[in-house]
Amino acid sequence: EIVMTQSPATLSVSPGERAILSCRASQSISTNLAWYQQKPGQAPRLLIYAASTRATGIPARFSGSGSGTEFTLTISSLQSEDFAVYFCHQYSNWPPRNTFGQGTKLEIK
Amino acid sequence: QVQLVQSGAEVRKPGASVKVSCKTSGYTFSDYYMHWVRQAPGQGLEWMGWINPHSGDTNYAQKFQGRVTLTRDKSIDTAYMELSRLGSDDTAVYYCAKEAGYSNSYNHWGQGTLVTVSS
């Protein structure tokens, strides 16, 4: 099983500043990686797929990068609505089993 | 618009089974794999498996092999997840999630179904 490790577990950032979240895969997954945002009591929302492509309707302040085993989600100029939990998700074709990172909680500093 | 509407909350005793439904609309049901993901209280997301609605083929996470069964009814555009031999650690919110098509990420999710396992 491919293990996804996110860091940090909690990130405290002030509104208007930039947040950088990391995700590492235990083996290469090419760019088969997505990022989701989850707010309390809600289902996750797709932000980024294929490591760097924004999903429909996602603001340009969200950007993703990386390939292989190291990935980053950057949120420039944080807005109040961005404080949430973020998960990375690998969906490599082989082995055909998806896994998620444990999440990064982005909180207001 | 695409909608995935799940069945309501369930309470089960240890050892019992539960079946959750995911009624879809707004797209061609057979064209996109459906995945199931669960989230224990205060925890992260855990992938359980997928079903190909067209063929009925399934693929399960090793952890749930032998306990989970994914099925679908194409006549009513609905997917199902059945989990047997429930334990207290199966208490979680269960989500269905539709693959995006342009990638194997999930662009639409159900609202979640809380399953509580308690004696």
Account of the protein in words:
The complex is a heterodimer of chains A (109) and B (119). With 109 residues, chain A is mostly beta strands. Chain A is 0% helix and 49% strand. Chain A has no helices and eleven strands. In chain A, strands 2, 4, 5, 6, 9, 10 and 11 form a seven-stranded mixed β-sheet that branches. Chain A has a four-stranded antiparallel β-sheet with strand order 1-3-8-7, with no helix packed on it. In chain A, strand 9 and strand 10 form a beta hairpin. Chain A starts with a strand and ends with a strand. Chain B contains no helices and eleven strands. Classes of the chains: A mainly beta (109), B mainly beta (119).
Short description:
By secondary structure, chain A is mainly β. In chain A, 0% of the residues lie in helices and 49% in strands.
Based on CA atoms alone, the radius of gyration of chain A comes out at 13 Å
Count the helices of chain A. How many?
Answer: 0
Which structural category fits the helices and strands of chain A? mainly beta
Amount of beta strand of chain A = over 45%
The quaternary structure here is: heterodimer
- The geometry of chain A reads as globular
Q: What is the number of beta strands of chain A? A: 11
* Overall outline of chain B: globular
Task: Please tell me the overall pLDDT of chain A.
Answer: 95
Q: Tell me the span between the first and last alpha carbons of chain B.
A: 40 Å
N-to-C order of helices and strands of chain B: EEEEEEEEEEE
Give the count of helical stretches of chain B. 0
Point out poorly predicted stretches of chain A: none
User: For the report, how would you describe the main beta sheet of chain A?
Assistant: 7 strands, mixed
Largest sheet of chain B: 7 strands, mixed
User: H/E element string of chain A?
Assistant: EEEEEEEEEEE
Q: Summarize model confidence as the mean pLDDT of chain B.
A: 97
Strand-residue fraction of chain B? over 45%
How far apart are the termini of chain A?
35 Å
Helix content of chain B: under 10%
